[in-house]
Amino acid sequence: MATGVFDTPTPDPYAGMPRSLALSLPSAPGGTEAPLPPLPDQMSEGTISKPGTRSIPYADKPVNPQAVEDSVPTALPFEFKSSGYKCVADLPEALRPWRDRPTTWANVTPNSEHVYLDAQGVVQYRPDKTAAGYDQPVTQMQFGLGCITSYRTEKDPARKALFLKRAKAQAQRLIDKRVESRGAWYFPYPFNFSHAAHSGIAYKAPWYSGMAQGEAISLFTQLSQLDGITEEERTLYKAAADGAFASMLRADDAKPWAVNKDSSGYLWIQEYPIDAPGISDYTYNGMVFAMFGLWDYFQATGNPLAEQLYDGSLTTIRDHFPRLRNARWYSFYCDTHRIQAPTYHQHHINLLRQLHWQTGSPTIANRHDLLIDDFPAYILRAGSAAAFAAGTHTLYKLDTLGAADDYGWSSSKGDKQLAVKKVTFAKATQAPVNVRRRIMGRGIYYRINAGAYAGWWVGEAYPKVFLRGEYVSTTYLPQRTATFPANVAVTCVKFGSDGVTGSTKTVKFASASNAPFDRRAIVNGRPMVRITAGGLTGYWAPTAQVLTDGR
């Protein structure tokens, strides 16, 4: 609860707030889940420069599928910590890797500041529009995967054909530009790259990325599963997936490499591998994107080594979560440099959600919830409103980024308090708001964006001040377990709609009692879970009063 949000609290929690507001949800267009941020730019904030004279040892020979298959190692590269995680076999299509990232028809022929298509329809990456473009493996792979996702759902034959053509073009370029080493395929970056804030990243072409190696597995595997390709193409893509997968089974005792283990025995897929021990970034998001390739490959081939690598990687993500997390603020980008990552925090949330779907692990789901509460997605849909109870409230002027940056946080401004004032309402009222976000060093606040108090912020404090509706929702598969503690009264709510007062049910159990839930959201300003069985079916329980999966 924010300090000074309202004065003189009363024993009646709904004093001054009509139950028709507190116990109902407004009908609102659009979904309630946080929107996906754009895919991260792997080159962001780094410096690209022309390569030197060192040649890249491209394979430059036809692919022999049988030889590639025979070259896939049959043992793990080294021993590492694991936990026995298993890949879910029957995950619905919509929840599988990359299905949430379609390439839009408007972007099927990109031409932006950083990307464009060459004459073969292959994405090229450039530092800016005046510079020459380069093959950038991750950009090509993600574009191709997006085209595959769109191909699966597109109904128009001409559009469907172009999506497939684009995906195949990316795959062919990667195959043509592969480097073969130790029986594995690697996908080189043909430009120099450095990053001032990440010490150790100062690459001379060619260099390699574990993120690219894992995403290549996804691209080739998913292409091989499409109905619109020939059997010859299918054989080629399966071989390419085998070649990329083999790179995950080669240790860091020779170059190039993509996987290693740290001094504590944890497996890492290195987005930015550095040869000096302990210098690599140990980047979280790049590792998880690579893990999706292992998941795809295991589903397609049943190769137990793929599941063991996935298990080891997820064990690393789980056990290093305390270093990824930055409680009540943005999470950190990587394990080495501990740089707060405003642009990556929502990616971490979305990636953990997918890891939960892929394994059913309640521990991973719990980690996901913590990141949401630390710093939830904060841009609200148009028409959002906050309800104010009758009485006195405290408003704040805060130093944030401006309208062009959605009033987000700035390290130089630091959410500094600029002004404060109290306002009194004779009866409950509502105000339009466009931002709900954590303020540095405080709780969750709303920004009023119209009316007499436009530009002022107020703290979230249900039921005196709350955002009406359901926000930042997550649907869980499999369902999770809420535990009602023994001898604790918990009031659950079945919400009405648009001013129709819902119902409450207060329960107290003599011993701890479990109930399944399928959804978690911020509902009228409180984190809540939706119960799906028993006498509380359809009711929402506040997370502050129940345990979720024993936590």
Detail the poorly predicted runs: 1-10
Q: Kindly estimate the percentage of residues that lie in beta strands according to DSSP.
A: 15-25%
Number of continuous helical runs: 11
User: What characterizes the major β-sheet?
Assistant: 5 strands, antiparallel
Helix content: 25-40%
Structural class: alpha+beta
Overall pLDDT metric = 95
Rg over CA atoms, rounded to whole Å, is: 26 Å
Strand numbers in spatial order across the main sheet: 16-15-14-11-17
Cα(first) to Cα(last) distance is 21 Å
Number of beta-strand segments: 25
Global shape: globular
Give a short summary of the structure.
This protein has helices at residues 19-22, 65-71, 137-153, 157-176, 210-224, 231-247, 284-301, 304-319, 321-324, 345-359, 362-374, and strands spanning 24-25, 47-49, 115-117, 123-125, 179-181, 184-186, 192-194, 202-203, 259-261, 267-269, 385-388, 391-398, 417-425, 429-438, 444-448, 457-459, 465-467, 470-484, 490-494, 496-497, 503-507, 513-523, 526-531, 540-542, 547-548. The chain is α+β, with helices and mostly antiparallel strands. The two termini are 21 Å apart.
Fold and architecture overview:
Helix content is 26%, strand content 22%. By secondary structure, it is an alpha+beta fold. The chain has a five-stranded antiparallel β-sheet, with no helix packed on it. Strands 24-23-22-18-25 form a five-stranded antiparallel β-sheet. β5 and β6 form a beta hairpin. The longest helix has 20 residues, at 157-176. It starts with 18 loop residues before the first helix and ends with a strand. Residues 1-10 have low confidence and may be disordered.
